[in-house]
Amino acid sequence: MGESFFVRMWPRLVRNEPAQVTELRRRNLAGLSGRVLEVGAGTGTNFALYPPEVTAVVALEPEAALRAEAATVADERIEVRPERLDEYAPAEPFDAVVFSLVLCSLPEPAGAVRQVRSLLRPDGELRFLEHVAARGGMLEGLQKAVDATTLWPRVFGNCHAHRDAVGLISGAGFAVTSVEDRMLAPAWVPIPTSPLVLGRAHG
């Protein structure tokens, strides 16, 4: 029930995404060039935001309904593929990998980040825009509470609100070179996915 609900809900959510999030998506992709791997492409919300210097994008999206929507908005640079990250074996490394609001939902996030590092060329870059764990206060308690239940992850596509995205990335051996914390709502507003981080890292 949860997975099908999320698949039905997600396209509606991203079509009505706050302008603040769209701008963060744009900034996450700004300056990229060459070959890019996007992990968890969803409905292709990022596709129109890739700069012209990006020559090819491999967009992984294992969920069939979301992948079908993504394929309708992909241009000639973008190949939408059905594999999960742990199933994908490219013929050559990528110049960059992009995470956009996906690390919270991966079942084995530490392993996923390590694999991503192995898919980058030696001077490649990881770009990330992610929900993150709140630091103290009511919001951190709320995140831990919803993660501890089965309902929140089931309904919201395995989302774990209290996940340390930056710690996972640095723990996989990446050098995190840029981190910007943002809030979609004031800390006292009970939205578990309000804290976001926009960042860059090199392998």
UniProtKB/TrEMBL annotation:
<dbReference type="Pfam" id="PF13489">
    <property type="entry name" value="Methyltransf_23"/>
</dbReference>
<dbReference type="InterPro" id="IPR052356">
    <property type="entry name" value="Thiol_S-MT"/>
</dbReference>
<dbReference type="InterPro" id="IPR029063">
    <property type="entry name" value="SAM-dependent_MTases_sf"/>
</dbReference>
<keyword id="KW-0489">Methyltransferase</keyword>
<protein>
    <submittedName>
        <fullName>Methyltransferase domain-containing protein</fullName>
    </submittedName>
</protein>
<keyword id="KW-0808">Transferase</keyword>
<dbReference type="GO" id="GO:0032259">
    <property type="term" value="P:methylation"/>
</dbReference>
<dbReference type="GO" id="GO:0008168">
    <property type="term" value="F:methyltransferase activity"/>
</dbReference>
